Amino acid sequence: MGKRKEIVVIGAGPGGLASAMMLSAQGYKVTVFENKPYIGGRTSAFSLGDYTFDWANLFSMPHILEELFEASARKLEDYVTMKEIDPMYTVAFDDFQMQATRDEQKMKETVESHFPGYGREYERFMKDSRKKLNSLFPILQAKHDSIFDYLRLKSLKALPSLDVGKSLYDVLSNYFHDDRLLLSFTFQSKYLGMSPWKCPGAFSFLSFMEYEYGIYHPIGGLNKLTEALGKVVVENGGEIHLNTGVSKLILEGKEVRGVELESGDKIVADEVVMNADFAYGISRMVGDQHRKKYTNVKLEEKDYSCSTFMIYAGVDREVPMDHHTILFAEDYRRNVEEITETFSLSDDPSIYVQNAAVTDPTLAPKGKSPLYILAPVPNNGSNIDWDKEKEGFRDLVWSQLEKKTGISDLRNSIEEEKIITPHDWEREKYIFKGATFNLAHNLNQMMYLRPHNQWKELNGLYLVGGGTHPGSGLPTIFESARITSNLIMAKHNKKERPIHEEIDHGRMLHQQEDRMTVFK
């Protein structure tokens, strides 16, 4: 065998690690550089006292990740203990609440009990969506680097399922008329940081996927997923360098030859995979002359998702809430418009709460709860002064949470608390405009019109993560890693010889140095 191809991955988030796992399993020499002292990006964990919190909060469609492990000659179950959550979540309005379940018959009965006559409409929605996703999935899993991709047979078959010209709200209105029921099946547009009244109708499959495939929790938290990916990279002989940021790409004309680290060291590579936040990475690592479509001005003009205001709170009591709860604003549409159109702070925010200890007691001491509280808010294009607004909005969120759940003294139980504002997302997590769901998923920023997995402006640069095709959310990020890895392997015309026999499996050497940690 000739010299092994060398791959550099910028960023140890889920997309970067999944790419590193698949490529290292095929014999590529893979090196991952991560500027943080931990792997996982926003699919990592942190501790406050005795409480453990994930930065991420929800995982569905585990079969996608299982397929990536199988393609890497591994089994996900050997690395992660997965538990299905049932009920999946509770949706709560001021005058009504409903538990969602993957059990289709039980869910039909639940809908019927609250909204007589609509149980069969739920059944129809599932049947229609099953057909829709079957036609859409092939194009979600395929690359879109040419406008002619739309002329392929599978793309032409999928066009009717895109519901062009319809919003998510419009599509679900074909099944449900009561606004509370409608919103219970359209709030998933928030996973994309978008309004259901603006989100393309094609995304009606978001709620369907939850009801079809379920929602899961890895024991120990979602961070166990990226921890597992990192372990396989190491087992395959790959290296993960922590505390090691990349400052820029090394270029010869339009050819990417490697990366220059913040230390000044230069690393040569045959291909580079970028897992940094798209706009942040492109604006800092690539000069304007090499990104004609994406100058700083044009990056500013792109549409970005909303942001999130986060409270992570360890409370010294068991909280009587399900694993996932969505508390809707009294006037949800006005709340969404404040977030996405008028870019103002709401006086009645919608709130999502994760109470993971009801599923996973490893995350907090017995009798206590780690609460993950999220309120969607405008991104930093709003110019909201979060240094000024932070404490007041924090108090509002707690007040609304206590009011809507009826747990009036919850704040008195706080032992640990951490707040993350949109400014923090941008300054500390390097997320452009603090847009936690990356580029918006408008029709003019989807598929071919989204930044390509194989970057067209430069040869040898590939993208993974929420800023490229297919989009944000863990399942689609893992799909982006599969697409990108397959593109790299196709470029080299063959799968290289696996190097598993050269590796002492399970060995992980931690080498601490002044400026980096290396996993070998």
Could you characterize what this model shows?
Strands 20-14-1-2-10-22-21 form a seven-stranded mixed β-sheet, covered by helices on one side. Strands 8-7-16-17-18-15-19 form a seven-stranded mixed β-sheet. Strands 5-9-6 form a three-stranded antiparallel β-sheet. Residues 146-151, 153-159 and 496-520 have low confidence and may be disordered. It is α+β, with helices and mostly antiparallel strands. It folds into three domains: 6-83 and 221-302 and 440-519, FAD/NAD(P)-binding domain (3-Layer(bba) Sandwich); 109-213, no CATH class; 306-432, Guanine Nucleotide Dissociation Inhibitor, domain 2. The radius of gyration is 23 Å and the shape is globular. Helix 1 (14-25) packs parallel to helix 9 (223-235). The protein is 31% helix and 20% strand. It has helices at 14-25, 62-71, 104-114, 119-140, 153-158, 168-172, 179-184, 205-213, 223-235, 278-285, 296-301, 332-340, 386-405, 422-429, 474-491, and strands spanning 6-10, 29-33, 45-48, 51-54, 59-60, 82-84, 89-93, 96-100, 215-218, 239-242, 246-252, 255-261, 266-268, 271-274, 307-315, 324-327, 351-355, 369-377, 414-420, 461-463, 510-512, 517-519.
